[in-house]
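In this section we walk through a basic example: taking a raw amino acid sequence and producing a predicted 3D structure, encoded as discrete structure tokens. The instruction is simple. Fold the sequence below.
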Amino acid sequence: MPDQPRTSSDAQTTTKPRRTEEHGRDTRPGRRHDARPALEAAGSTLVAGHSAHVPQGVCGHTLFDLGDFSDDYAVDPLLRNDLGLLWLVTVDVAGPRRVEAVPPRLEFASTRRANGVETTLLLALLEERCAAVGSTVRREGEHLVFASR
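The resulting token sequence is shown next.
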């Protein structure tokens, strides 16, 4: 990538790397953070990780894991992979401007909007996951809104 600053005429690039660990269980320190700076420096407008099956935190241009939007795994009662996110990301050439999500509940052969109790539980899980990557999450009505520190 050129060392030139991006302009409004530059194309936006989304990178979707696959994580190798299932359900976000990676015991190697710093492993999931290693690729983020390189992908962002290479010009990715948005990096959207996947395959951990549980939504993770947000940092800079990176959504560490999108989670699932359909039920294709047994529910882990601690990780709550039955609580996902439908991501709504506002992006410009500089990267994400606003990152928010609507929480769905994944059930056998169907997906519905998470209720208040389920959203509160997911918010608590995401507060911990976001803190691990240097971001925060808060509830605004029926949406969860993410911010990098």
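Looking at the output, two observations stand out. Residues 14-148 form one domain. The chain has one domain: 14-148. In the next section we compare this with other chains.
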